[in-house]
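Typical record was shown:
=====
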Amino acid sequence: MHPQLTSLGLPDLLEDPDALSKLTDEQLDLLATIRDEAADALDLEPDNEANIDAVYLSHMTLTSALFLRALMVDAQPQALPPGAVLARSWNGAALRIASKEATADMVVPTATLDALNNAGLPSVAEPDLTFDEHPVRLLSTMEARAEDDDASNDEFFGSFWRIGFNAYEDAICIDERADGVVVLLDKEWGFYAQQFVNSSVGHFLLCLEAWRAMEADAGDDVDTIIDTFEKSVERIDAAALTEGAFWADCLDALDEEPTA
C-alpha cells in the first residue's frame, strides 16, 4: 500500500467517521492524487495488488469524507411544505406517489414519508434518472453475493431504500441511518462508494424541478440560466453543492460542456 496512505491512518481511518469528517482539503487533494496515480499505474500493471489497494482505499476514503462533510454542513435546507403542496412545485411529467403500504417498513422522518405518500416522484427525470414505482430495499435489487459476506452486506446495505438509478445503474437511495438523506451508491465500486445527493427526498424533488426548469429555459444567456439553477439549489439545500455532491458534479459537467 502507498506509504502516504499509511501516514493518513489507512486502512483504520475508514472505520472512524469522526476522523474522516476532519480530513483537511490538503489531505483530500492528496487522496485524489494517490488514487489517480495508482489508477494510471494499473493501466500498465493491471494485476498489481498494491496499486489495486491504493486505488480502492484512496477512493473510498475520499468519497466517504466528502459525504460526511455534506452531512455536517451548517446551513439548514429549505423548510418543506406538506407533500400535497410540494407536488404543486413540480411541472414535469406526472408524479407517482408511493402507497403507505409500500413505505410501512421504512424507518425515516415523517417528512420523508409525507413526500413519498403525498407528493411522489416522476417515472423518469433529467439528468438521465429513472425512478422505481415505490421504494425497494437495496438488498433485494443486488445480485447474490458470497454467503460469507451476507452478514456484512446486511449491516452496510440494510438501511438503504432504492428510489431510482441513473444510466450507469448507480443506485439512488434513501438512507435510514442518515435521517432519510438521499444518496447515490456507485455500482462500479460495489455500491460502497457514497455520494451525497440531497438532505431529503422532498429537497431532491425540488432540485429535480430546478434542473427541469433550467433545461426548459429557452433564453440565450446560458451562463445566467445555469447560475439561476445553482442559486435555486443553494436556496433549497446548500449541502447539495458541497464538493463531490451529486448536484455539484452536475454543475461541473455543465461547465465542461463545449460552447457553441
Q: What stands out?
A: The first helix runs from residue 3 to 7. DSSP finds eleven helices and eight strands in the chain. The beta strands are 95-96, 121-122, 124-125, 129-137, 160-166, 171-175, 181-185, 194-198. The mean pLDDT is 92.
